[in-house]
Specification:
about 35% helix; about 25% strand; 8-stranded mixed beta sheet; globular; alpha/beta; 15 strands; Alpha-Beta Plaits; Rossmann fold; about 300 residues; 11 helices
Length: about 300
């Protein structure tokens, strides 16, 4: 992805920085404005958006919630963000999976003997085996450091992914699609409506030698079934659907997501917060998906929802 793209950002500054719980409340308040990245500052946060309109609406919401804070709009080059992150971005280990920036690949291979290329995934149940997924940091697209991504990676390893057809909705960096492929999925379709996200995902798929199993499609969620049917007749639903979205998006698209899950298949839903469990669960249940026990981290939630018929 070109480093020349400018992202609308908002520096949110407090006289005294709030605690983590309060910060989560602020981020939840602007969820409907679709922030695509958050960077911590000494006295606040830098929040990135897809366009200036959503940034402006977010500023209004935040000031209404807390009149003492200051919101300063600015434009940030994607390359600048990536360069600043390189020095401090560490690998993330979730079960057998390690998500790492590419400049740490040699260290991982040397120190632990892990595989950072395209070898076969570790054997199920082999606690000493690890698989490295290389993700080039790019502002707005997941590097595995957010709790919702880690929860998805955790749940993926608890499911029998080998041999399944998988759909990754809103793929972003492609980290979940690559993880599914490395865990043995037969084929993975990864969709996103953002062309820049798909460019980032494409780079990461190549970086991980996963191109033979992963197909990237530019599409909105409600067009997925039709596009898949056109490209692969008879394939308009999947054994496993991954949806790391938001609580509002999961509830709003519950019936669309359920229709993409084959009978006896599963949906892994993430990106919502603990207080949203009732609304998200109710929406997915009404669409025909039965919830399994959710898992939580830092107030974020993910869960497996099963389709029996």
């Amino acid at each position: 992805m070109s480093s020349s793209r400018l992202y609308p950002a908002l520096d949110v500054l407090w006289p005294l920085r709030p605690d983590d719980e309060r910060v989560e409340i602020f981020l939840a308040e602007i969820d409907e404005e679709h922030p695509i990245g958050v960077e911590e500052l000494v006295t606040g946060l830098r929040i990135y958006f897809a366009n200036p309109t959503e940034r402006g609406r977010a500023a209004v919401r935040l000031v209404a919630l807390e009149p003492d804070l200051t919101c300063e709009p600015l434009e940030v080059e994607d390359g600048d963000w990536a360069a600043r992150s390189q020095a401090s971005l560490e690998p993330v280990k979730v079960g057998r999976l390690i998500v790492a920036p590419p400049w740490r690949a040699a260290d991982l291979e040397r120190d632990a003997g892990h595989n950072a290329g395209g070898e076969a995934p570790p054997r199920t149940g082999d606690a000493d085996s690890s698989t490295v997924i290389l993700i080039q940091p790019s502002m707005g697209f997941g590097t595995g450091h957010h709790a919702s991504t880690r929860l998805c990676l955790q749940l993926l390893q608890q499911l029998p992914v080998a041999g399944l057809d998988v759909l990754d909705v809103g793929t972003g960096s492609g980290v979940l699609a690559i993880a599914a492929a490395r865990l043995g999925a037969r084929a993975v379709v990864a969709i996103d409506h953002d062309t820049d996200a798909l460019a980032a995902a494409r780079d990461n798929v190549v970086l991980n030698d996963a191109g033979e199993r992963i197909e990237l499609i530019h599409a909105d969620l409600d067009a997925v079934a039709g596009l898949c049917r056109e490209r692969h007749p008879g394939t308009e639903a999947f054994d496993l659907v991954l949806a790391n979205l938001t609580g509002a998006a999961l509830a709003r698209n519950a019936h669309v997501l359920a229709a993409l899950v084959r009978p006896k298949g599963a949906l892994v839903a993430s990106g919502f917060q603990s207080e949203e469990i009732p609304s998200v669960t109710a929406a997915l249940q009404s669409a025909g998906l039965a919830p399994a026990a959710p898992t939580e981290e830092d107030g974020w939630v993910a869960g497996v929802f099963l389709r029996f018929s």
